[in-house]
Amino acid sequence: MDYIIIGMLGVTIILLMINLFKKNGETQITERLGKLELSIVKEIGEFKVSFANDIRNDFDKLDEKIERKLIEINNKVTERLDQSLEKTNRTFANVLERLSKIDEAQKKIDGLSSDIISLQSILTDKKTRGIFGEVNLTFILENAFGGVSTGVYDLQHKMSNGYIADALLYAPAPLGTIAIDSKFPLENFERMTNKNLSKEQRLVYEKQFKIDFKKHIDAISSKYIIPGETAGEAIMFLPAEAIFAEVNAYHSDILNYAYQKKVWITSPTTLMSTLTVIEMILKNMERDKYAKIIHDELNKLSLEFARYKERWDKLARNINTVSKSVEELNTTSEKITKRFDSINKVEVEKLKIDENKELIES
Fold it and tell me: Per-residue confidence at 113, pLDDT binned at 50, 70, 90?
C-alpha cells in the first residue's frame, strides 16, 4: 500500500511539473519528460518487482502459519479422539462387565425361583412341613448351644406318656425342663391373607385358622406339660415369621388362649433370643458353681504366701548374721596378713611395740 501511495504522489508531481513548465520550451519539456518517463517506468518496474516479492513473502509466511495451525489442530483433534476412544472402550468394558453380572444375577434369580417353587411344593404337604420345622428347630438349637453332646437339650425326646417332643431343653431352675414342639399351620393362613378372595371368604378361613391354632396349643399343653417331669410351661415353635407376626398383630385372643394353656409361642427370631438368655443363665450358674472352689484355692494360696514371707524373713536374718561373721573374719584375716608381713620384714622391735599398743587398746 505504501508503494501505491508513493506512485500516486509521483504522478501528481509530474503533472504539476508539466503545468509549471508548460511555458518553457517544448524541446526542453520533451527531453525532461522523456527522462522523467524513463525514470518513472524504471521505478514502477522496480516497484512491481518489490511488491510482487513482498506479496510472495507474505503469502509464504501466511502459508507457514496456516500449516502450523492445521498441524496443531490435527494433533489436538487426534489427542481428543484417542481420549474419547479410550473412555468409550472403558465404558463398553464396564457395560460388558455389568451385563455379565446381570446375567449371573439373572441365573441366580432363576435358580432361586426354582428353589422357591420347590419349597412351595414341599410346604403344601403337612408331613414335609413338619420336617421343615424340625430341621429349623435343630439348626437354632445347635447355633445356640452346640451339638446334642453338650447335654443342654435333647432331640426327638420320648416323654413318660409316650409322646415324642421335637426337643427337650434342660433349662436351669426355676424354669426346669421345657418341651419344644414345632407347628406349621399354613393352609388357612394363606387363604385368610389372600387378597384375591372376598372379605367374607377370608373371614371364614380366619375362623378356621384360629381353630387350627388353638388345637395345636391344646395338643402341646396336654402332651408336653407333665407335672414332676417337665416345667409348667412348653414352647410352640412357628418356623414362619409371617405367621408369628400375624398372630401377635391381629389375634390377641390366640395369645391369651396360649397364655392360659401355659404355652409360649415363638418364631425363629424370638426362640433364638430366648435360648440366648437361657445360655447366659447357664454360664452364670456354671461360674457361680466354681466360685466357692476358686475362693478356697485363693485362701490356700494366701497361707502359702504367709509361710513364704516367714521363711524369707528368717533367711534374711541368717544372711545378715553370715554377712557380719564374714566382715569379722575379714578383719581377722587382715590382721594375720599384717603380722606375716611384719615377720617377713624381721621387724621384731616394731612388732613388740605394736603388741603393746594392741594390749593397751584391747
Answer: very low
